[in-house]
Amino acid sequence: MSAAPVEDLTDRHEDDTAVILYTSGTTGQPKGAELTHANLTRNCDIVATELLQLTPDDVIFGGLPLFHAFGQTCTLNAAVAVGACLTLLPRFDAGKALGILGEHGVTVFAGVPTVFSRLLRQPDLDAHDDSRLRVSLSGGAEMPVQVLHDFQAAFDCVVLEGYGLSETSPVASFNTLQAGPRPGSVGTPIRGVEMRVVDNGTEVPHGETGEIAIRGHNVMKRYWQRPEETAATIRDGWFYTGDLGRVDQDGYFWIVGRTKDVIIRGGYNVYPREVEEVLYEHPAVADAAVIGLPDPDLGEEVGAAVVLKPGARTTAEELREYVKRQVAAYEYPRQVWIVDALPKGPTGKILKREIVPPPEPGRR
Questions:
Q1: 164, β-bridge pairs
Q2: Are 113 and 143 in contact (CB under 8 A)?
Q3: Longest Cα pair distance anywhere in the chain, in angstroms?
Q4: If exposure means fewest CB atoms within 10 Å of the residue's CB, which of 34, 79, 169, 321 is most exposed?
Q5: Which of 142, 165, 187 is nearest to 290 (CA)?
Q6: Counting beta carbons within 10 angstroms of the beta carbon of residue 242, is it exposed (0 to 12), middle (13 to 18) or buried (19 or more)?
Q7: Could you give the CA distance from residue 113 to residue 181 in angstroms, rounded to a whole number?
Q8: Are 324 and 316 in contact (CB under 8 A)?
Q9: pLDDT tens per residue, range 203-233
Q10: In angstroms, what CA-CA distances link 309 with 42, 81, 138, 281?
Q11: 151-197 pLDDT per residue, tens
Q12: The whole model's pTM is what?
C-alpha cells in the first residue's frame, strides 16, 4: 500500500503474445502455442457471456490445472471477467470435489471426462448437496455418451460438451444452454469461428469423416520457435487439428478420434472412440482406451485396456464378446486386458502412447 503508483504502462497490441501454453503431448512432443491478447479475451468473453451466461453470483469449480488452456480460459479468466468466484482444488480428489460442490455452493462445474467418471463412482454420492449446480462443461477429451447421461441423471445438471485445443485458445465449438446438449456431439462453432471437415484440404460432404480444420479469432499466432511445425499446421489461415470428425446436416460436429490414433486393420479403418463408446456402456467399465497393436498379418490389431468400477467383476473374454455383438467384425478388440489404472496427463486426459499391453494377451 505504501508503494508509489505505477503510472506508465507498456504499450501492447492485441496481436502481441500474451501466453505460451504447451500442448498436452498426447501423441507426440509438447509444443508451445503462442496465444495473443485477442485470442484470450475473445475466447473468454464468449465462454463467460454466451456459453455459461455467468454472473457475479456464480461459483465455478476450479479443479482444472490453470496452466492448461481449458482451466485458464474457461474457469480462471471467465471468473475474473465477470467477477464470479473460482473455488480451487489443487489436486483433484473426487471425495473432496463432492464436498466443495455443497460447501461452496458451486454452480458451474468444469472437467475432463475422466473427472466426471470418478465423481460418479463415489460411494457417498447422494450424501452431498449439489443443488446449486446448474451447468457442467466437459472438454479436453471425448466424453462417452453413457457417462454424460449418467452424470446428468445423478446431478440433475445439464452437461455441455465442447471441443478445442491449446492452439485454439481453447474453445472452437460447444453445445449451448439455449439449444441444449446433443449427446455425443461437440456442438457448433462459437461466434466468429469457422470449422470444416476436409480430406487433403478439400471439404467433404455432411456425414463423411475427415480432418477438422478451424479458422477464426481463436487460432494461435504460431508455435514457439517451431516455424516448420507452424507452417505444416496453419495453412491459408486454417488450423489443421489432426482430429478426425464429421459434421451433420444441422452443423453439429462429432469427433471420431485423432488421425494418429486410427487403427488400420487389414485395410479397414477402425476409429477407437466408436469402440470405446461401446465399452463404456458395459456396467462394469469405468475407463477404457482402444489402441492399435502391431500384427504381422493385418498390419494392426485392435486392443483395449479397461479399468473396472470398484467392486465390479467381469473378464476380458466377456468384454470382448460384449463389444463383438455390437460392432462390425473388423472393429471389435481381439485383445482385451484389465488394468488397475490408465496413464493420464495433468488434466486427466488418457495418454494412449504410454499404454503398454501385456506380453501375451489372449486373442480370438
A1: 171
A2: yes
A3: 75
A4: 321
A5: 142
A6: middle
A7: 15
A8: no
A9: 999 999 999 999 999 999 999 999 999 999 9
A10: 40, 39, 21, 12
A11: 999 999 999 999 999 999 999 999 999 999 999 999 999 999 999 99
A12: 0.85
Cell numbers for 198, please give them. Answer: 476436409
Amino acid at 135: V
Whether the CA torsion 215, 219, 222, 227 is positive or negative: it is negative
